[in-house]
Amino acid sequence: MSNQEINSKFDQSKHTVVYHGNCLDLLKQVPDESMQLIVTSPPYNIGKEYEKKMDIEQYLEQQTAVISECVRTLKQTGSICWQVGNYVNKGEIIPLDIVLHPIFRNLSLKMRNRIIWNFEHGLHCSKRFSGRYETIIWYTKSEKYVYNLDPVRVPQKYPGKKYFKGPKAGQYSCNPLGKNPGDLWVIPNVKNNHIEKTIHPCQFPVELIERLVLSMTNEGDWVFDPFLGTGTAVIAAIKNNRRSAGAELKKKYIEIAHERIQQAMAGTLRTRPMGRPVYDPVRAGNSLTIAPWENKKTTPHRMVSG
Ligand SMILES: C[S@@+](CC[C@H](N)C(=O)[O-])C[C@H]1O[C@@H](n2cnc3c(N)ncnc32)[C@H](O)[C@@H]1O
Fold first, then answer.
1. Which of the 8 DSSP states describes residue 46?
2. Which residues are 19's β-sheet partners?
């Protein structure tokens, strides 16, 4: 697709739409059953700079309004992926996927996976274990949904494994295209040293969304993100020849989204490639992995991962 234009209003004949305003206003412009994938990370109601903390019931009412509109615009073969973490109130956590699930169920959506997105970096907690995962809850509108496994397969642990008995004895037992990536995804989150980092506090890594775009849509399909932030879902769509639309309330994030999307269109945006192994400082021989208080000669039990 050669379209290099960013449109500010929804138009099904266009390729890329970035709406500055409330997602409910953009959703009103989107026809019924036209979106193939709706993927987002909504505000978590934890008092980040882009949200006002409210009581959880009011938050869920607002989420219900957006989710209902998203379901209206979703194709029969389409998917909705809601990426969430915890709502935290005075140290008590409420995992948002638990409280959002009934909303999706009441709209007759079918859950296909609860994907655990595991990352290594984040706040260190002192009164509970530090949070190192969030979830992506994936729902479809019907039983007949798009799911392309081949573009998102990952290398097997033992690709050289062969059948040792039966009619296929001696033949390789693995799919040469790789294996199903499973529902536990280890992908670095966008912190300060990440190549994609902007000033936004909660950016998606592009590779996380690319995996969803590739497996749940086909070329030319529409991808929609109601809470677009810095434009990551649109970028993942452009990289893979899909159409895309999203809304963002804050001007400063819209400006960043525009800049990144233009770079993605020009092929100059630097992103962490899908499938790159997570950096392992021990394997990389980083000297900072040796604690100064450790005696190198007498401490034989230092862990080497993998
Ligand atoms: C968790 S962030 C999403 C970040 C995004 N995934 C990215 O990669 O940059 C949620 C975003 O939703 C925006 N937002 C909050 N309420 C909104 C609304 N009603 N309509 C549109 N955007 C909204 C916030 O300003 C914030 O940037």
1. S
2. 247
| pLDDT per position as a tens digit, 241-294 | 999 999 999 999 999 999 999 999 999 999 999 989 999 899 999 988 888 887
Task: Read off the DSSP letter of residue 130.
Answer: P
For atom 13 of ligand 1, the residue with the nearest CA is 227
Q: Domain residues of the chain, as ranges?
A: 16-289
Would you tell me how many other CB atoms lie within 10 Å of the CB of residue 57? 8
Pocket around ligand 1: residues whose beta carbon is below 6 Å from it?
22-23, 41, 43, 50, 200, 202-204, 227, 229-230, 232, 247-250, 253
Residues 6+ apart with CB under 8 A from 260: 198, 230, 231, 232, 235, 269
> 88 pairs with which residues across the strands?
93
Classify domain 16-289 by CATH architecture.
3-Layer(aba) Sandwich (3.40)
Query: By CB neighbour count within 10 A (0-12 exposed, 13-18 middle, 19+ buried), where does 257 fall?
Result: buried
